[in-house]
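Quick one:
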Amino acid sequence: MEHHSFPHHHNDTDYDLMRHVPGPETVTAVSEAMKQLGDPTRLRIFWFLCHTEECVIDIAAAVEMSSPAVSHHLRLLKSAGLITSRRDGKEMFYKAAETELVRSLHFFIEKIAMIHCPDHQD
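Output:
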């Protein structure tokens, strides 16, 4: 990154800090993910899918909602890159995407909510 003049330049740490500012693509991806997880239902579905791969009917049963409502939330989570899907015959299965952003969000959700993954206790 080239040096830019800051109107209120105080010291060289300003330049060092600017080299670490996330790029627009990163900020947009994180912002979109957090916006989607700001909905309580999507947060529950996301957390659930961080631990298992399931079909819409089973996800709907887990979160006590209709399949069409869950499908709507799944589309939003998928468009934000938080979950992936795969087809097995006529059935579509969903799980959390295997990305650093998803792993980090899962970790922080559990820390903030003070819950532990069923598959490993801290």
